[in-house]
Amino acid sequence: MAQIPNLDNAPLNLTSIREQSQKELVSILKHIRGKKCLVIDQKLGDSLSLIIQTSLLKATFSIIIALPLEHGVELRHLSADPVQTDCSKVVYLVRSQPNLMRFICSNIHNDVSKGLQREYHVYFVPRRTVVCEKVLEEEKLHQMITIGEYPLYIVPMDEDVLSFELDLAYKECQVDGDTGSLWHIAKAIHKLEVF
Prior knowledge:
With 195 residues, the chain is α/β, with parallel strands linked by helices. The protein is 42% helix and 18% strand. It has a single domain, classed as CATH 3.40.50.2060.
């Protein structure tokens, strides 16, 4: 994982943006009580490593709910392989992409076939999409999942470099005619104006 960049000399208050993103993620995990397994898609994991260190995430989370570390968070990467965990709660933190929903569905179907009783939470970054929710409905899993959003619109890469983390935005706008990524960019710019 990448080193969290030093943002002290940034022309904008990027440290506040990073701290707000940290607080929002910890808040999501805090509201899901008990031991949980956090499953993150690989691309998002790289972005999150610029926001919060895994060790800081575990330590902060343990302090917030006043439980020892073993009752905190297990961290896994999303793949087609089933999630191996003893946790009764699985939290997926993923970008809004249909192919990632298929991985989640595969994981849940595998648990159901084994008779495992788990609580599932899917948090979309930065926001949910109808297409992704449709995939969950088609797989008849939407009733088993609590859906939320983690509004990570902008990632400070360095003191003078920001990323919207929208690697498919150009294709979506120009080829697919989907201007949804422009909404994300506008939301990120608004966030910068607030700080």
